[in-house]
Amino acid sequence: MRDLQMRSGGKFSIDFPILAATLMLCGIGIMFIYSSSVTATGELRSQEYLRQIFWLIPGLIMMVAVALTDYKYYQDFALYIFGGMLVLLVLTLFFGQVVFGGRRWLGIMGVGFQPSEFAKIAYIIFLALVVDRNRVRLHNPIFLSVLFFITLVPVGLILVQPDLGTATVFIPIFIVVIFIAGANLWFIAFLVGVIVSSMFFAMLPAWMEFVVQRDIPIILTLQTPSHAALLAIAAYIIAAASAVGYFLLHRRWFIPGAFLGVVLGTGILGGLAASRILREYQMMRLVVFMNPNIDPRGAGWNIIQSLTAVGSGGLTGKGFLLGTHSHYQYIPQQTTDFIFSIIAEEWGFLGSLFLFSLFMVILFRGAIIMRRAKDGFGAYICAGIIAMFFYHFMINIGMAIGMMPITGLPLFFISYGGSSLWTGLISIGLLQSVYRHRYTF
Predict the structure, then answer these.
(1) What's the angle, vertex CA 241, arms to CA 238 and CA 247, rounded to 5?
(2) Where are the transmembrane segments (predicted)?
(3) What pLDDT score was predicted for residue 19?
(4) How far apart are CA 356 and CA 393, in angstroms?
(5) What's the predicted TM-score (pTM) here?
(6) Residue ranges per domain, the chain?
(7) What is the tens place of the pLDDT at every residue in 108-149?
(8) Angstrom distance (rounded) from CA 306 to CA 303
């Protein structure tokens, strides 16, 4: 009888901790968008907080609508949703509005939106469907490689805009979803190793030029395509020799040599490609991450001012509307990328801890919903959303405190912007939908 009551009540229930945390985060976001708009003389320099409220209302309606819809309904349309978002990304490259040097916004009836934000949700639904229907093939490296190359399609379209931060979000979503689904761990380790080594080799030339400030022969060699290709081939030869040794002698200690050889060779080529793809200002963001004082009045200004604002907040902060860095406009993008700096300055460590706890509620409750989902499709949707939320949280907070390079990722529910806010609220609606339908009726 008790089980029957749980099943009948579960259909109409909602996860109140997630809902409460989301609403509080949205409220905090509006508060500090307002605070960031107040000048040192007490004047209101923008109406961004009003626009955020205006965007919040339809966002909440969308959240409720998605929560009331059975998430399994999206199975039949996942491919069309994903394909439609790819079309919008292509249209953005040709007809998008240029803002701050990037062509990232499409305008419809005078209202601009960012397709790359909604592409994350479309990709999560698509990936969840494909993984759920092909779980028996998740140990096949070829299938996983094809799925990863499909992932690179939206990544490439967003990189061209250019928007490096948003493009990188798709990778952790992919890794987390296939990991939760039980994919081949060697493939996941290989993918993570290639990504890390590629970024390492891409950063080496900038590190040599700006940090060490002297020529290092091996790094100069990696900058030459022909030499880098030879080093990669040498790494592949070592991998092949290790593989032959394993099959002939059946010694397991050959496996790490083969694995590392392939990762190293691919990482060298990936680093060379990344150094050619990344633009100069993006490379400078990586440089000032290593040492902001290299360009304190240029690329390093954001990090230095953000760190100063965060540190000045102390334990309890200066008080709401009493922050100096925000009111004197020392921090660029202080309502978007660096809004956490304003929160830390005015609310201090304790206020930041409260903010962290609200995000942790969403992440932990999301993980619980994922574990209780009645099918793989729902569980993988939750896994993708958790990965997206955590990555945004980690990168945004990390760059505000100098622990991550500047990538331009907003803090969900807090940063100013309608597309990001709607993406976050729709994602919460999906979590609620999986929660509501966690029982079979």
Answers:
(1) 140
(2) 12-33, 53-71, 78-100, 106-130, 142-160, 166-183, 188-208, 228-249, 258-278, 347-368, 380-403, 409-431
(3) 95
(4) 9
(5) 0.89
(6) 2-38+46-436
(7) 666 677 888 999 999 999 999 999 999 889 989 899 999 999
(8) 5
